[in-house]
Amino acid sequence: MKRSVVLLVLGLALCLAGCASRAEPTVSAPGQTAPAASAPSLSPPPVSTPALTAPPVTTPAPTQPPLEITQPEPQDDDFVRVIDYVPDMAVELRYATEHNFTGQRIYDFSQVWLRYGTVKKLMAVQEELGQQGLSLKLWDGFRPPSAQFRLWEVCPDSKYVSNPHKGFSSHSRGNTVDITLVDGSGKELQMPSGFDDFSPLADRDYSDCPREAAENARLLEQLMLRHGFKAYSGEWWHFTDTQAYPVAQDFEPVEAAACYADCKEYLTLRTAPSANAPAITTIPKGEGFLLLALHGDFALVEYQNLLGYVLRSYVQSAP
Fold it and tell me: Which secondary-structure segment (H or E) carries 79?
């Protein structure tokens, strides 16, 4: 009897253990449909798309501006136009007109030329005068030997004109000026005499002239002497640079004339009338320029605001 009860209890325990190990079925509420089992996803796995990176922008290298060519500073013995360095100086080149003691035009040009060393001294005088509201006025500068011969032909009197057959005027060295003073309006200040006056009034004995004229002449003389000039006793207007230069027998200014480069490829513009002088730039074949002066086998020309020398044989007058 007891054995039967024990077997019964063991069987019941095994039955309960088996029920606990099974999954519990889902029971739908009345009127509801049991949810279908979820099917596995058929979507493809996400594809990893690399981030889009903009291609690098290549910045072109900056274009170098064309090299600016500047005018080299002249040597002290080089000839230059005064107006290029002292543009505020008054100029009345008397021998380029008939308004002179000969009544004839002596020069074939209308610009004043001087040695650069002399011009630098005039610049200093002009600057000091400007502080007083005054200015220099230039009547004569470089006088080529050809002009000195013309003067002698018109007035063959050594009392008034240097005899070129015996020696040239200091004007032919390019370091001598005939000069006076003007006020801020360009009016000439009173002086002991007029230009090229051959009377005793022209000398530097100012006792025979009005006080104002004497004071003005002394002011001009003091400034010119202070800045490196010497005065000629017979003419209050005549001053020579203390720096001597040789007579320039082969430098001949001309009235500016249009020309062009008559060559195979280009002309070399140089700082001096020499094939060995440094080059400033080149002038392409057919390019135009201004002829300013003749100097031996070379010509002084102006090209694109640059002044320099080229071989004369390749200079052709413009039609």
Answer: strand 79-81
- Residues 79-241, CATH architecture: 2-Layer Sandwich (3.30)
Residue pair 239/196 in contact (Cβ under 8 Å)? The answer is: no
Q: What tokens were used for 244?
A: 């001597």
Q: Look-up: residue for tokens 């640059």?
A: 306
Size (the chain), residues: 319
Angle formed by the axes of helices 116-130 and 211-226, nearest 10° = 130
Place of tokens 């630098």: 120
Q: How far apart are CA 202 and CA 160, in angstroms?
A: 12
Gap between the Cα atoms of 14 and 36, Å rounded: 33
Domain 251-317, what architecture? Roll (2.30)
What is the spatial distance between Cα 313 and Cα 299, in angstroms, rounded to a whole number? 9
Q: Domain-by-domain residue ranges, the chain?
A: 79-241, 251-317
Rounded to two decimals, what is the model's pTM? 0.77
The DSSP code sequence of 289-303 is EEEEEEETTEEEEEE
DSSP codes of every residue in 218-281: HHHHHHHHHTTEEE-TT-TTEEEESS-----TTEEEEEEEEEEE-SSSEEEEESSSSTTSPEEE
Q: Is-contact 270 280, C-beta < 8 A?
A: yes
Block means of pLDDT (10 residues each) for the chain, 319 residues, are: 44 42 41 46 52 57 66 95 96 95 92 97 97 97 94 88 89 97 97 94 94 97 98 96 96 96 96 96 97 97 96 95
